[in-house]
């Protein structure tokens, strides 16, 4: 039942589905069945002034690449479109007229794989492409450059967060070159990991 499928997936829009055509199951999508994700409001609530997104809006998730129908909120006090996407935990590829987004879960997963297993961004994206093609059986538009740009923005914001730039008066824009670098714990740092009178100690050979 298409109506039941849409109702069940109102809060799960990033699932791959198949529909029975009378002889066999064929790939379909929640967007084709009429599912529209409303942003800017509480889940499953309606907006009095919905604004449809780009017809080819794409979301990259941990299980593949999805084409999703999205309605932005255009009420008088609505947040910008990129803020509405961030509130849904979808990182927009661009703050101006976004047409692609990457879920926070996808970005976190790639960062873990990249740091622990040295997995390149291209190989991770290829994995998403293969998973999507195996389910949908249709070729996808290239989204690698968009994914790579989003990953770089995500990593930069993470570095600024760990550096405490959100609490600085000057914010991220006031970050000086090298200010986000981490000191090597094995290297000698005066007043950190050296004794107070380290300059007065005579040089001796081990």
UniProtKB/TrEMBL annotation:
It comes from the Eukaryota. This is CxC2-like cysteine cluster KDZ transposase-associated domain-containing protein. It holds the Pfam family CxC2. Residues 30-134 form the CxC2-like cysteine cluster KDZ transposase-associated domain. It comes from Dendrothele bispora (strain CBS 962.96).
């Amino acid at each position: 039942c298409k109506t039941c499928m849409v109702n069940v997936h109102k809060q799960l829009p990033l699932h791959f589905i198949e529909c029975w055509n009378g002889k066999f199951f064929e790939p379909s999508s929640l967007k084709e069945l009429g599912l529209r994700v409303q942003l800017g409001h509480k889940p499953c609530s309606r907006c009095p002034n919905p604004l449809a997104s780009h017809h080819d809006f794409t979301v990259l998730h941990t299980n593949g690449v999805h084409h999703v129908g999205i309605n932005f909120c255009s009420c008088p006090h609505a947040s910008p479109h990129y803020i509405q996407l961030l509130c849904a935990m979808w990182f927009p590829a661009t703050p101006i007229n976004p047409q692609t987004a990457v879920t926070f879960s996808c970005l976190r997963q790639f960062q873990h794989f990249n740091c622990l297993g040295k997995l390149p961004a291209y190989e991770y994206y290829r994995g998403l492409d293969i998973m999507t093609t195996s389910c949908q059986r249709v070729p996808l538009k290239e989204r690698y450059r968009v994914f790579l740009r989003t990953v770089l923005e995500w990593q930069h914001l993470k570095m600024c967060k760990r550096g405490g730039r959100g609490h600085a008066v000057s914010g991220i824009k006031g970050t000086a070159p090298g200010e986000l670098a981490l000191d090597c714990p094995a290297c000698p740092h005066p007043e950190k990991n050296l004794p107070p009178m380290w300059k007065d100690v005579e040089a001796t050979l081990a």
